Amino acid sequence: MQYETYTIHRERIRVGPPALRRVALFTGAYNHIADGVSLTLNRLVSYLEAHDTEVLIFAPTITDPPVDHAGILAPVPSVPVPQRSEYRLSLGLTSNARSLLRTFRPHLFHIATPDLLGYQALRFAGREGIPSVASYHTHFSSYLKYYGFGRLEGQSWKYLQHFYDRCRHVYVPSQSMAEVLHSRGISKGIRLWMRGVDTHRFNPAHYDTGWRRSIGVEDDEVLVSFIGRVVREKGVHIFTDVLKNLQQQGIKHRSMIVGDGPVLNELRDRLPHTIFTGRLENEQLARAYASSEVFLFPSDTETFGNVTLEAMASGLPTVCADATGSRTLVEHGKTGLLAAPGDTRAFVQAVQHLIRHEPERRRMGAAARDCARQYDWNTVMAHMVRYYDEILYPEGPWSGDGYAGNGIEAPTTQAIRVP
After folding, report:
1. How far is CA 395 from CA 129, 211, 392, in A?
2. Which of 60, 142, 311, 343 is the most exposed place for a label (fewest CB within 10 A)?
3. 309 and 180 in one domain?
4. Would the pTM count as exceeding 0.85?
5. In this predicted model, what pLDDT tens digit does every residue of 215-253 receive, in sequence order?
6. Residues 150 and 213 in one domain
């Protein structure tokens, strides 16, 4: 049996026998932060390794990372992002990384972040004649307005157009995100790669009256929750304004913020009556979702909305911004309510309506749970294998019923519609 050996940080790694696919994955987030991007990519790597694919990941890391990562990670040099030290800024491909790539001999480059590392990987792949694909995880251009750089949005889109035009495929998590990219001149090779949810973990059955009481929520109080990274671009200022408005109107409720981030202390000062749990994981996180009544997530920067889908799987009606990502998941009036981005009054009215109308709240929560069941992780990940093989094996191995040998159905790409 043939094995291949290569070295990372003086440690010799044996991999083999040679797989049907060898993929080099480049990302700005993999194990140093537990966000939607890193968790999705770790799940992807686990799936790929179980389906005849070797993966070598190039990403920044830290001494004691919060994520027990999947696969083999080749760390790249990085520095903390100014004012956002929880993120790392990759400094590009080193000579050692380039040597490692030549030893690994990837069939495909998958670039998850269009940063310096991603750009240098794209150029390296071009010189070596290796096809590149990209996945669109973070709506970076929409973040600029929150940090005083809104004037740079046009330039950022020009760079992104240049970057993604050089990729064979661009994987987007939602139809609405595909439409945004197309409006900005990015339409080549667009493929739909949604996100999934574990409906066994995120489940209404985890509702816990005792836990609610332990954090100070009375049995007859409606708990309105925000779950996610506590950062400006997630619309936390809208969340804060909604709660203050509800309090001024004397509408009985409780509020909870689950998560951590750079503006957490600011919110603690502004919301003295709100419950702050910090970051939760696994069963504790599932319990926090299921023990709430309303999920309020005003972010207008999402490409998909992982936390929204987790809330829906937990049986919660959701109140979200009528914006990219969220509008793909939330059906207004059926699984939740949508409000115009930044319209505090609309968000207040939506939350107020759900607090006051329990039967409708329960109906929407049940419909949200039913909708979430459609997002099975195995189906979502199987699409990626199929997309890779469109490039690597254009003449096969395919059959009319899907992928011969692996039992993977060909994904439906017609879901992507562009004007």
Report:
1. 19, 56, 9
2. 343
3. no
4. no
5. 999 999 999 999 998 988 899 999 999 999 999 999 999
6. no
